[in-house]
Design goal:
Layout (H helix, E strand, L loop, with lengths): L5 H7 L4 H14 L1 H8 L7 E3 L2 E3 L3 E3 L10 H7 L3 E7 L12 E4 L4 E4 L8 H11 L7 E6 L4 H12 L6 E5 L13 H14 L4 E5 L5 H12 L4 E5 L3 E5 L5 E7 L3 H14 L4 E4 L5 H9 L5 E4 L1 H6 L1 H15 L8
Parallel strand pairs: 3-4, 3-14, 4-7, 7-8, 8-9, 9-10, 10-13, 13-14
Antiparallel strand pairs: 1-2, 5-6, 6-12, 11-12
Helix pairs in contact: 3-4, 6-7, 7-8, 8-9, 10-12
This protein binds flavin mononucleotide (FMN).
C-alpha cells in the first residue's frame, strides 16, 4: 500500500481492514515496479540465519502473503527474507467474514482469517516465478495443518522446492482445533519425521500463550536437531464474539513485551536460533531484539497493516541510519 500522505493514511483507518487488505494486494500485484521504485532502500545490514546469509535481518512474517503473490515486491523492496503462508495442502477458503478487527489506539489487530490458502501447488508455482530474481533474499515457507501427516507432507514438498530456503512450521494458529501441538513429545515426534525427509533449516513457530515448562521442553527438543530454531511468536489467542469464528489472535504492539519476555526465557536456557515476531514497528526495536536478545532475524506483520509498505522501508531506513552511527544507539 503506497500511502505517502499522512491525511490519506489516517483516512484508511476508517476503511474496513478486509477492504484495505484486498486493495493493497491488487496494487502490489498490478503496479509492483512503481511501488518498488518509490520505496526501495539500498542498504547492507548483512546477518546470518542458520547457514544463510541475509542482506538484513528484517522480513515480513506469515499472514501478509499467504500464497506467494507478493514475494517479489517485498524482496525487491529490500527485505532480508520473506515468509509465505501459512500454506496448507489443498485450497482452503478460511473463515467467513467478519474475521479482522482493528484497534488503532493500541496498534493492534484481532484476526481470525482461518488459514485461507490457495494450496501448496499454487504457492510453489508462484515462488518458482521469482526464484531466479531473488538473489540475496531468502524465502521461508510457513506451513500449517491439523495433523502431523499434513505437516510432514508439506515439509517434504517445500524441502524439494529450490525456491524455498527455510521451512517454518506453524504449531500455534489460534484457529487450530487440536490443542496438543505444543507438547514437547509431539514436537519431537514431528521434528523426527520432518528431519528424516527434510534437509532445510526448520523454524518452529510457537504461541505466546505458553507456560515456561512447555517452552523449556520445546527448547530442549529443538536443541537435539541440527538447524532447528524457534519463531517467537504467533498472535495471542483470544475469544472474539464479534468475529465469525468466535476466536481470534491478537497481534501488534501489545505483543512486544511478551515476545521479549519469552525470548529472554529461551536465551537464559539456550543459544538455539530464535526469530522474533510480535509487535515490531521500528528499526530501534529490531536493533534491541538483535543486540539485547540475540535473535537472528525479526519478522513484522501488523506494522504493515498500519503503515503499508512504508513500514518496511521506514524500519530498514531507521536501521541503516542507526548502524551508520547517525542515530541514538540506545534501545
Ligand atoms: C492478518 C494476519 C494473518 C496472519 N496469518 C498467519 C498465518 O497464516 N500463519 C502464521 O503462522 N501466522 C499468522 N499470523 C501471525 C503473524 O505472523 C505474527 O506471528 C503475529 O501477528 C505477531 O506479529 P505482529 O505483532 O508483527 O503482527 C497472522 C497475523 C495477522 C495479523
Amino acid at each position: 500500500m503506497l500511502i505517502r500522505h499522512r491525511r490519506l493514511r489516517s483516512l484508511l483507518r476508517y476503511i474496513h481492514p478486509e477492504v484495505t487488505y484486498t486493495l493493497s494486494h491488487l496494487a502490489f500485484r498490478n503496479m509492483p515496479s512503481l511501488i518498488i521504485k518509490l520505496l526501495r532502500e539500498d542498504l547492507v545490514l548483512e546477518t546470518k540465519l542458520f547457514n544463510l546469509k541475509l542482506r538484513n535481518p528484517v522480513g515480513v512474517g506469515a499472514g501478509i502473503d499467504k500464497n506467494g503473490d507478493l514475494a517479489r515486491v517485498f524482496i525487491e523492496l529490500g527485505c532480508g527474507f520473506h515468509v509465505v503462508g501459512s500454506v496448507v495442502l489443498g485450497e482452503k477458503r478460511g473463515n467467513p467474514h467478519p474475521r479482522l478487527y482493528r484497534y488503532p489506539e493500541r496498534l493492534a489487530l484481532i484476526n481470525a482469517l482461518g488459514l485461507p490458502s490457495k494450496g501448496a501447488s499454487y504457492v510453489l508455482r508462484q515462488l518458482e516465478r521469482i526464484s531466479r530474481r531473488r538473489e540475496s533474499a531468502h524465502i521461508v515457507a510457513n506451513i500449517a495443518g491439523e495433523s502431523l501427516q499434513e505437516l510432514v507432507a508439506l515439509s517434504r514438498i517445500f524441502d524439494r522446492a529450490d525456491s524455498v530456503d527455510i521451512i517454518e512450521i506453524n504449531l500455534s494458529c489460534p484457529q487450530y482445533t487440536r490443542s496438543d501441538f505444543h507438547r514437547p513429545d509431539i514436537v519431537e515426534e514431528l521434528l523426527l519425521k520432518v528431519r528424516s525427509i527434510c534437509t532445510k533449516p526448520v523454524l518452529v513457530k510457537i504461541s505466546p500463550r505458553i507456560d515456561t515448562s512447555t517452552l523449556r521442553g520445546i527448547v530442549r527438543v529443538c536443541e537435539r536437531f541440527t538447524n532447528v530454531g524457534l519463531t517467537i511468536s504467533n498472535s495471542f489467542p483470544t475469544t472474539a464474539g464479534f468475529l465469525s469464528s468466535g476466536v481470534g489472535g491478537v497481534s501488534g504492539l501489545p505483543l512486544y513485551r511478551l515476545s521479549k519476555k519469552l525470548i529472554s526465557y529461551v536465551r537464559a536456557l539456550s543459544d538455539v536460533t530464535v526469530v522474533a515476531c510480535g509487535g515490531v514497528f521500528t528499526g530501534r526495536q529490531v536493533l534491541e531484539l538483535i543486540t539485547k536478545y540475540n535473535v537472528s532475524a525479526v519478522q513484522i506483520v501488523t506494522a504493515l497493516a498500519y503503515g503499508g509498505l512504508h513500514a518496511v522501508s521506514n524500519i530498514l531506513k531507521e536501521l541503516k541510519h542507526i548502524v551508520r552511527g547517525h542515530g541514538d544507539q540506545r534501545c
